[in-house]
Amino acid sequence: MLEHWFPERRVFLRSETDTRFIRLRPVTQLLAFSGTALFVAWTIVATAILLMDSIGAGNFREQARRDQRAYETRLNALAAERDSRSVEALAAQERFNAALTQISMMQSELLASETRRRELETGIEVIQATLRRTMRERETARSDAQALSDAGASGAVASGHSTAPAAFDLMVTALAQTARERDTIGADARDALDQADDMADRIKQMEARNDQIFRQIEDAMTISVKPLDKMFRAAGMNTDSLLSQVRRGYAGQGGPLTPISFSTMGVAPSGDESRANRLLDQMDQLNLYRIAAQKAPFAIPVKEGFRFTSGYGYRRDPKTGGRRMHAGVDFAGPVGTPLYATADGVVVHSGWLAGYGRLVKIQHEFGIETRYGHMSRINVRVGQRVSRGERIGDMGASGRVTGPHLHYEVRVGGEAVNPMIFIKAANDVF
Hints:
Blueprint: H1 2-5, E1 9-14, E2 19-24, H2 26-159, H3 164-234, H4 239-249, H5 271-295, E3 307-310, E4 313-316, E5 323-326, E6 329-332, E7 338-340, E8 345-353, E9 357-363, E10 368-378, E11 385-386, E12 391-395, E13 405-412, E14 415-417, H6 419-429
Antiparallel strand pairs: 1-2, 3-6, 4-5, 6-13, 7-12, 8-9, 8-11, 9-10, 10-12, 10-13, 13-14
Helix pairs in contact: 2-3, 2-6, 3-5, 3-6, 4-5
């Protein structure tokens, strides 16, 4: 059967002196053919595999390049958004400072106008007193003239015609003097009334300007105080307790937050005085809010390039796939990315803690605590006081993680709250 397909063959090898041959049996030919076929098949398969690997690697590289370009585009967009937010924050801060400057100027103008108004009121009272005194003197002069007239008539009857001319001359002189005094008093009274009318007009103008200043200050205070109040309430904080705590900490007599009010000297306050006192109370409240905002973590812990990878709330666990609560937010970045404290405070934990890995806890004012997890290096120790913006360590991948990132938490009264409330509030207000 093999000879039918592979008949026996002889291969002659001839030289100059000799001739030899090699007999190729059917089995030998079958083995040679099978080996050749296997070699060719292996060559074809290997070549196909290499081509497929090359094509796949090219596709993978192209996909990687596309992913890298998309990632760089996203990073550039985030950087541009961060820069725009920074510009908006600086513009908001400048507007806030300008509003405070305007409020200070308006307050100075208000105090000056109040002083001028009191001076005018005092001047009107003096003019009125002078007018009343002048009227009394005029009545007295009239009484004296009448008495002299009566005395002259009686003397004329008693002494006859001999004393009548002298009494008449005396009476004419007294009447002339009384008439001059009356004219003088009348002129003084008219001048006083003209001055009073002029002062009344000036007082009305000042009251109108004061009302305009009051409205501008009230609008500025409303614009300044309400966002701060909303910011703290959104963070889950009791603003009344917060302000009371700040006020107790800054209650030194003569300090920057000592309440100021207009004295009414035991008299019921006027509308302007009550209005001014309300504005001063609002300014005091604004100062308290600003102090509180400086002590609360209204900042972001990562300043260099990062990627926001996970938010606050329930999510799929990256390790087990189950659903569980995520008590903070995650910022992904390269290992060694600097991390910064978001507010002034005291370090209460610095070291390893279970799934957090290397963890730093900072206790702030008002019962607020911030946590920085999965760090690669820690630069602070327990009991150390840190300031906002101070570098506390580097980003890493310690603990229960899938890659290098920062797990950032904010807790108020021991309860975890969404840190983005503070971060967004800082971007919107500051």
